[in-house]
Amino acid sequence: MKNYYRILNVGQDATAEDIKRSYRTLAKRYHPDVNKGDRAATRRFDDIHEAYMILSDADARAAYDEKLTKATTTRITANDLNDIDSIIARRTRENEAQVEQIRFRAQVQAQAQAQVQAQIKQLRDQIYKQGYEQGKKAGYASAEKDIMRINDDMKKLLADNEKFKKQNATYAGDWSELEQELFDRDRELARKNERIEELETQLSWMRTASGGNDALFRQLDLTRGRAQELRENAVGGESDSDPQVSPSPAAMLASLSPEQQDKRNRMCEQIDALNKQLDALATELERLNEESEQKLELGETRHFLTSMENRAEAWAQKSAADRRLAKSTLYGTLGVLIWATDEEITDEYQKLKALYGGQKDADSVARLQKIQSAYDILSNPQKRKRYNESIGCPQERIETERRLIRENEAAQQQYRSRLAGKEFWGYFDELSSLALAGDAESQNALGELYYKGQSVERDFTQAVYWFREAFEQKHPAAIYNLGTCYLNGEGIGKNKNIGLGLIRQATNLGYTPPESKE
Q1: Is a pLDDT exceeding 50 seen at residue 172?
Q2: Domain 4-136 maps to which CATH number in 1.10.287.110, 3.30.420.310, 3.40.630.30, 3.40.50.1370?
Q3: Mind giving me the DSSP string for 35-98?
Q4: Residue 466 near residue 450 (C-beta atoms within 8 A)
Q5: Which CATH class is domain 328-420?
Q6: What are the pLDDT digits (tens) for 69-90?
Q7: What backbone phi and psi angles, to 5 degrees, belong to 126?
């Protein structure tokens, strides 16, 4: 006889709740769906279910307990066993029916789940196909719009080009003032060079004929003297009177015959013409000397400006590399270069301390702590020396860089002194200093100068660098400007999504572009 209490792992005095709890635990463990192909588990599950069906029924349990007691005391009669067997057989049939029902439900559930999965897959495929078709249509539509826009732009450019041709307008581009000045000077130099080449040809011929300017001027003086002598002789004419007596000019003219007077007049005309030619030649020579001096001066100026322009471009690239080198160091925290002097470090620290000292927000407080820590090290000569060696910048290199800075500043001062707009360069220096110190407004303004090419050479790379510096401080205008650079691919890889995202971010921060305000 089966001991249902042992099968359910409960005692004979277990409550109905204990029996039910144990049954649920064992049924989950030995369920056929969990143990597919395991016949032992299936038989165990059948026994568990059979035991639960008997013990969960109060009458059946009472009868079973009575028979179990008799069986254990070996006083169970044959009729009692028959009754128990009949109950067990009935419960077994009921158990088998319920097991079949459970299995049927499991099969139905599995079939339903398979159908649901198939429907989900079909729906996913349909959605993917619809999305692909919609994306394809949207892509074609976007491409058509872009093509139409490009065609319109081309038509507009062609129309503008025709208009410019009709008006004989010269396209000036988006030049800076310095570039425009150099262009004008180059054009003026070209004209001067053509005139100088012409005058040099004449001068070469005259030098060949006369042996040089000095000899030519001496020849001019001799010629003038000879002309004066001829004039006097022409006035005096021929005389048979006593040479010790000087007749008056009127008397001499009256004594001349008509042929002599005619000859005298022709000589005077020739002499006057010769004097005019000599005066014109002397004037041309003087102007030639002035043109030669001017050519030398303009040539020197042109060479100087060209060399300074190349030097400024190379120095700008070097400065950008120096800033990138210092950015990740304590020097970058203070906004100075690694080879900054002690005075420059102290000045920048005082500016940053005044900028963030009165602010109470968490970012400002944290930034001020970093600034203070950096200054504590860099303001101490010994600590600074050790720190410089740790980042691979020995004192010899720092001295070399400082010497290069002094030389560049001297050259820039000479360059600026020869150009107009000294007030702008003062403003530019101050703006650069504030930008290096971390002032977001100055960083954005400096980036706009480089972006637009206002009084400085246009440099999109420099513009993007300063826009990014201000972007890190959430400056709305800088965020908008950086988005424009991404849209146009100026100074950075073109990315329409990033560009539009930055512009929307700037708009959400309340920024309105200047052209929109107008």
Answers
A1: no
A2: 1.10.287.110
A3: STT-HHHHHHHHHHHHHHHHHTSHHHHHHHHHHHHHHHHT---HHHHHHHHHHHHHHHHHHHHH
A4: yes
A5: mainly alpha
A6: 887 765 445 555 566 667 777 7
A7: -65, -45
